[in-house]
Amino acid sequence: MESLILFVLVLSLLFLGVPVAVSLGLSSLIIITFFSNDSVSSVALQLFTASQNYTLLAIPFFVLASAFMSTGGVARRIIRFAIASVGHFKGGLAMASVLACMMFAALSGSSPATVVAIGTIAIAGMRQVGYTKEFSAGIIANAGTLGILIPPSIVMVVYAAATDVSVGRMFLAGVIPGIVAGLMLMIAIYVMARVKNLPAEEWKGFGEILEGGKEAGWGLFLIIIILGGIYGGVFTPTEAASVAAVYAFAVALFVYRDMGPMKGEKWLRQDDPKRARVGFSASVYAVAFFFVWMILTFFAAADLPGVTLRGRTLLGVALSLAIMVAYALWRDRESNPLNIPGYLIASLPIWRRNLSLMGRNFFRAFFNDDTRKVMVDAARTTVMLMFIIVNALLFAHVLTSERIPQTITDLMIGAGFNWFTFLIAINLLLLLGGQFMEPSGLLLIVAPVVFPIAMELGVDPVHLGIIMVVNMEIGMITPPIGLNLFVTSGITGMSLIQVVKAALPFVAVLFAFLILVTYMPILSTWLPYSLMGPEIMSR
């Protein structure tokens, strides 16, 4: 009886327009007060316990990193690299938009952020070369959903917090499905491009790929820091999130200079002598390679026998010097290795100018209007998410104390459900709920209920998490509450109905992908269990 009253209260409040967090918290409080043997003081204890959840601490840091990386310059550089890589195919610009969304998803962890950052630039670019606005908007709305599937993902952190599944395993589990989903969208675009005779970009050679990769490299290196750090055993997912936030701040303000007090200041100027420019670039590549080498070799080989810090350092220095010499000779074919010291000496004024500029603006960068705006926006998003999560964990506490999941489990097993039919039911439930609710809120309501049932029926907890995330993806592009639809409508000026029609053909691709993920668990479980072992859960 209590379970029926609880769900009726939640659904009634939601349909009355009460915010998700308030609906969950108020319903839980009413049940505890009037129908449960629990003391009301357990509410305060549960809220305090939820606020101390170490896993949830990753959310504000990932939100902050996403906010800094969502600056236009990062997205623009990623799009250039994507176009250089796949733009020469039929429908290449559209395929490059999907690839750019995949790469930006690995930086942001948020679908709406991916749509805004990539869509603002990519849709305008596609329109200029002859794509219709509807086709462009449909691609971005769908590709943007990869923001919560490709790690790091805020929704995966929420699922992990609600079910006590490993965040690290969830992140790894999203890698292969994320790549498969992106490839399926690109294949669909290619087929449509052949039918509609859509344009292809000019092939600009591998030099353009290298140039694009060089520009986007500072942003994309965040992926290595997060995933490499977690799976190299350097830090936990929560610590990785804090490192990502600091790195994103440094790259946006001091390296790319797309915001803050140094906005628009170039590292190199047109009046810098050629020797100075070559020497500066050669030294930057050498230093950057050395640090990347040291980080990657630490992640990959720190525990291998015979690999020492001294050996890694000496080899890294040798390779960095070789790269510096090779770059200088490539840029100045008339030079020779003996001229390298002269190049480095000539570059000193450029180093002095830039280091002096950063020194003068170091403290100003923390209090700049751009920084303040990013921090405030990130804080608002964090407060909203955390308020929902804390109330949802109170809701989960009521479910557990009243043994509601166990009662539902007994009913489903008694009705003859097995893992196959259970997953069909879960998909239908989440697809329906995703049309009306925000992903994190829906997941926090459904996960505590279905997770014990899934465990009883032998469904892998990591596999279940990926199924739920993919359903959340589809929910973000289905009306009436699909967030990506509203965001796409806002950046294109199209009506919501127009965006829905534009996204519909590609939604079919994601439905096919959902079926693939649901009944091929190896896509989700092979990588995390190969690297980290199976998830052990007590039933």
Binned, the helix content reads over 70%
Main beta sheet, described? none
Average per-residue pLDDT, rounded, comes to: 85
Radius of gyration: 25 Å
β-strand percent reads: under 5%
Low-pLDDT residue intervals, each spanning 5 or more residues? none
Q: Note the gap between the termini.
A: 25 Å
User: How many individual β-strands?
Assistant: 0
Instruction: Give the class from helix and strand content and strand pairing.
Output: mainly alpha
Name the shape in a single word: globular
H and E string: HHHHHHHHHHHHHHHHHHHHHHHH
Give me the number of helical elements: 24
Describe, in plain words, how this protein is organized in 3D.
- The structure is a single chain.
- The protein is mostly helical and 539 residues long.
- Helices cover 77% and strands 0% of the residues.
- The chain has 24 helices and no strands.
- Helix 6 (92-108) packs antiparallel against helix 7.
- The longest helix is centred in the last third of the chain and has 33 residues, at 369-401.
- The protein starts with a helix and ends in a 7-residue tail after the last helix.
- The mean pLDDT is 85.
